[in-house]
Design goal:
Elements: H1 6-20, H2 28-41, H3 47-56, H4 61-70, H5 81-98, E1 108-110, H6 116-129, E2 140-144, H7 147-155, E3 157-159, H8 168-174, E4 175-177, E5 182-185, H9 187-190, E6 193-197, E7 208-213, E8 219-220, E9 223-224, E10 232-237, H10 248-252, E11 268-270, E12 275-281, E13 299-306, E14 309-316, E15 328-329, E16 334-337, E17 349-356, E18 361-364, E19 377-380
Parallel strand pairs: 1-2, 2-6
Antiparallel strand pairs: 3-5, 4-5, 7-10, 7-19, 8-9, 10-17, 11-16, 12-13, 12-15, 13-14, 14-17, 17-18
Helix pairs in contact: 5-6
Length: about 375
């Protein structure tokens, strides 16, 4: 196989930095050392050929392998002891006071590597609260982009020499000795940490919008639902790739009930075209996301934008609509705000275009910035 060229090295560096925020520009020897044999043994003739496969892989397995090989995961128990002391002596007393009524802690260990950091935090919390620990909900979220290190973290098995820095009381209470070489984190502490794969660069560092078209293919008698054939749902994502600004769902697998936690809620809606307001409906309540109602009407606007063509905008916020029936609107004009009214699970914009063919309404494909949305297509502002 050909040695890696400067162009190929830069391709690897730019790809990983743009996707995961890991800068390898000064680590050419590391990249070659960790990838050269793998690329060659996998039958590739060059790094360019390998990168092409990685970037076109739809399963995610090739990218996962790449990340597992090039990321450095150096950590150990009680790393940065000053930080842990501050957490124990300042942060926990503050949280104990401010969260005394709810007794609900939310801690995220980002870039958790093989688990030593979150397990250390869990042991500190357990020791701090003592007999009152059972009164607190303190399950911690720990994330990393490497599935390899997450597997080690979930197993919770470490060399005995790595836990020598810990207090003897901790070793006796929170570890179970397997043999002369290894010990395991106790089940009590394991249950306090939820490990998840997560890319901190998921949102590309900026807010973005996720579009999904949904072809229902419902049947009314023998007729297909041609009206909704190219309907599209749009949600807003934050810089972490989430559609809401809370991590509660990672702990309890439930959607946030507070609509204000959703990035899309109250977002301004501007007219996508010039035309006339053909119909408008307002006054319907914005629903709790946990109470999805199938046959509840949504606040919506329908614009006739040229002969026999209509565009509908659904799930708008109650009493936010700024236009009335018959109004002439211009492209870019403020129409209202995004809400959660009607048959909807979370705040989003439902947009569809149709053509009136006399007795039939035919859905029309929608073009966003020069491309037709496919499932989970992301558009950046």
């Amino acid at each position: 196989m050909k040695p890696i060229t400067e162009k190929e090295f830069n391709q690897v560096v730019n790809f990983i930095k743009s996707k995961y925020g890991v800068n390898l520009s000064n680590k050419k020897a590391l990249v070659i050392g960790r990838l050269q044999n793998y690329v060659e043994q996998s039958g590739f003739n060059s790094f360019s050929e390998y990168l092409e496969v990685v970037m076109s892989d739809k399963t995610g397995s090739a990218i996962t392998t790449l990340i597992n090989k090039v990321t450095t995961n150096h950590t150990y128990f009680m790393r940065e002891p000053d930080h842990f002391n501050f957490f124990q002596n300042a942060v926990l007393p503050y949280l104990e006071k401010t969260e005394s009524s709810k007794k609900d802690l939310r801690i995220w260990s980002a870039g958790c590597s093989t688990g030593e950091e979150p397990y250390t935090i869990a042991m500190i919390i357990d020791e701090y609260f003592g007999t009152e620990k059972s009164l607190w909900n303190s399950v911690m979220l720990a994330t990393d982009i490497s599935t390899k290190v997450l597997e080690t973290a979930c197993n919770g098995i470490y060399p005995n020499e790595s836990i020598e820095v810990l207090p003897q009381k901790w070793k006796n209470t929170y570890f179970k000795k397997i043999n002369e070489e290894k010990s395991s984190i106790s089940d009590k502490i394991k249950k306090e940490v939820v490990f998840k794969k997560f890319n901190l660069m998921g949102g590309n560092g900026a807010s973005s919008f996720l579009a999904n078209y949904h072809y229902h293919a419902w049947k009314f008698g023998t007729e297909e639902d041609t009206l909704n054939k190219f309907s599209t749902d749009i949600v807003k994502l934050n810089k972490f790739g989430f559609c809401f600004n809370t991590l509660d769902f990672l702990f309890n697998n439930d959607l946030p009930k507070d609509l204000n936690k959703y990035e899309m809620f109250s977002e301004p809606l501007y007219s996508p075209c010039e035309g006339e307001v053909w119909s408008v409906e307002d006054g319907n309540d914005d629903l709790d996301p946990s109470k999805n109602e199938l046959y509840v009407p949504s606040n919506n606007i329908v614009i006739k934008y040229k002969e026999n063509y209509y565009i509908a905008l659904h799930h708008l916020k109650k009493e936010s609509i700024k236009v009335a029936l018959g109004d002439k609107v211009k492209q870019g004009q403020l129409l209202g705000e995004i809400g959660n009214s009607g048959n909807t699970t979370i705040p989003h914009l439902h947009i569809q275009v149709w053509k009136n063919e006399g007795t039939t309404y035919l859905g029309v494909p929608i073009n966003f910035n020069g491309s037709f949305p496919v499932k989970n297509k992301v558009y950046f502002k």
